[in-house]
Specification:
Blueprint (H helix, E strand, L loop, with lengths): L4 E4 L3 H11 L6 E4 L3 H10 L6 E2 L3 H6 L6 E4 L5 H13 L5 E4 L5 H12 L4 E8 L1 H7 L2 E4 L3 H14 L2 E2 L2 E2 L9 H31 L3 H11 L7 H11 L9 H4 L9 H12 L4 H13 L2 H7 L14 H34 L5 H7 L10 H11 L10 H24 L4 H14 L5 H12 L12 E3 L7 E3 L5
Helix pairs in contact: 1-6, 8-12, 8-13, 8-15, 9-10, 12-13, 13-19, 15-18, 15-19, 16-17
This protein binds NADPH dihydro-nicotinamide-adenine-dinucleotide phosphate (NDP).
Length: 479
């Protein structure tokens, strides 16, 4: 018998995905890995899966029914290109090559274009949820052509996580749209994690509660509007005691946060698109700042506030932090969806933002009930310009903004860094401002560079002759 789906790359992610595929009714899975040992091992350890092993690309192609469909799960970058080239050699027009790795979306756009010229379909699919998700059900964000979705859709639906009866996969858009959306998912994840970390820091330093006590706070929060996987695991991490020292684990972990680069991609892309994803940017920078011990060592001599930070009303403060966290989270997601909207416009993708929020409800790291509210907002108004203004979110911001301000003031006075909380609040105040000092910036730009400006009271483009008699003239629009 032939396989209806194949997997190339049998490290952790690929082998788990292959097992997931094999466990679903109707799938027969062909497997191939560059070094034979991984293939032998997988097949030997999982006879129940009925894998069809292949030891060359020719054998792999021959073991697949048409249209041949293969998911690549190898190291991102050059290895992915090498595997694509090999598959193109043995596949035929109409076949489908899926890259399930963490590719940078411009690479996916490039690869899709090159592979399409051979008549073979190329699909970049963001797969979120790590090893566990790959095995039990990830959230999947495929791009690529409509034609490939016809074959691929049912296969991906069979292995995706399920949220309220719906599989967490949708055809996001053409070529690089899937990897773009996966990138923004990761950026939002950075912001969400940083906000939770800031909430923890403020509570700990403001109230003196122990990590285990703060774990209880997070567990309680997880029953309300903040309910999410990240809040849940935060409680677990805070409750963990180090076996060696008997201390809270969080106190023995080195405070330097790593990153694999998807946060930076999200921010770089947002800068190029002109989208202010300040929460994601601050979260990414906060990791960078933490990871420069040499700078932190010399800067440690700089002074902080004189008075010690202690809150009087502990319960009141914790509730303020909860509200600030929720408000900041709304802004982070609003900014992330703004980036997807802008990316779709730039790259001519038709992306259903509500559908994207729904496929994040399970299988991925930012999974949460909250995402249903985002889906509701886009169902109500698909072209909503600012997600945070949707009724449910606007109500939460209205309710929480006073607490949010108190928390940012307290953090500032206490000298506790809260870049994600405070930048989100600054965005909130900026986007809702009736008038911004951008008018002055335009005046400055016109002064030194004759960059011109528009007026609020008439059409046209103007320049003040700053170095002459300072009269205003109509000018060519030079931006
Ligand atoms: P790795 O990223 O560690 O890659 C190892 C695999 O790549 C092996 O199968 C290896 O084959 C293969 N490989 C490396 N170079 C080549 C090459 N030149 N030609 C052919 N094959 C090659 O594996 P992971 O399972 O950790 O991740 C796979 C993909 O999934 C990556 O793109 C990664 O970014 C992504 N990922 C996603 C996660 C998520 O949560 N979504 C989590 C982890 C990873 P060999 O055995 O012969 O060396």
């Amino acid at each position: 018998a032939l396989a209806n789906i194949g997997v190339v790359g049998l490290a952790v992610m690929g082998s788990n995905l292959a097992r997931n595929l094999a466990s679903r009714e109707g799938n027969t899975v062909a497997v191939y890995n560059r070094s034979r040992s991984k293939t032998d091992e997988l097949v030997a350890e999982h006879p129940e899966a009925g894998f069809i092993p292949a030891f060359s690309y020719e054998e792999f192609a021959a073991s697949l029914s048409k249209p041949r469909t293969a998911i690549i799960m190898v190291k991102a970058g050059r290895p992915t290109d090498a595997v694509i080239d090999s598959l193109v050699e043995v596949f035929e027009p109409g076949d489908i090559i899926v890259d399930g790795g963490n590719a940078y979306f411009p690479d996916t756009i490039r690869r899709e274009k090159a592979v399409r010229e051979t008549g073979i379909n190329f699909v970049g699919a963001g797969i979120s949820g790590g090893e566990e998700g790959a095995l039990t059900g990830p959230s999947i964000m495929p791009g690529g052509s409509d034609e490939s979705w016809v074959t691929l859709g049912p296969i991906l639906k069979s292995i995706a996580a399920v949220a309220e009866g719906e599989p967490c996969v949708t055809h996001v858009g053409h070529d690089g749209a899937g990897h773009f959306v996966k990138m923004v998912h990761n950026g939002i994840e950075y912001a969400d994690m940083q906000l939770i970390a800031e909430a923890y820091d403020l509570i700990r330093r403001g109230t003196g509660k122990t990590p285990a006590e703060i774990a209880d706070v997070f567990a309680e929060w997880n029953k309300g509007e903040l309910e999410s996987y990240l809040i849940e695991i935060t409680a677990e991490v805070l409750r963990q005691v180090d076996a060696e020292t008997g201390k809270p684990l969080v106190d023995v972990i080195l405070d330097q946060a790593g990153a694999k680069g998807t946060g930076a991609w999200t921010v770089q892309t947002a800068l190029a698109l002109g989208v202010p994803v300040s929460g994601i940017a601050e979260a990414t920078f906060a990791r960078s700042l933490s990871s420069h011990p040499e700078q932190r060592a010399v800067a440690a001599s700089l002074p902080g506030p004189d008075e010690e930070f202690r809150v009087d009303d502990v319960d009141g403060f914790i509730e303020d932090v909860r509200q600030a966290l929720f408000a900041s989270k709304i802004i982070a997601y609003s900014q992330g969806f703004d980036e997807i909207r802008a990316g779709a416009a730039e790259y001519n993708w038709t992306i259903d933002l509500g559908a994207v929020s729904k496929i994040w409800r399970a299988g991925c790291i930012i999974r949460a009930q909250f995402l249903n509210r985002i889906a509701d907002a886009y169902a109500e108004q698909p072209d909503l310009p600012v997600l945070a203004t949707a009724p449910y979110f606007a109500e939460a911001l209205t309710r929480g903004q006073a607490a949010w301000r108190r928390v940012v003031v307290a953090a500032t006075q206490a000298g506790i860094p809260s870049p994600a909380f405070s930048s989100s609040l600054a965005y909130y105040d900026g986007i809702r401002a009736e008038r911004l000092p951008a008018a002055l910036v335009q005046g400055q730009r016109d002064f030194f560079g004759a960059h011109t400006y528009k007026r609020i009271d008439k059409e046209g483009t103007f320049h003040t002759q700053w170095s002459g008699d300072r009269t205003e003239i109509e000018a060519e629009d030079t931006h």
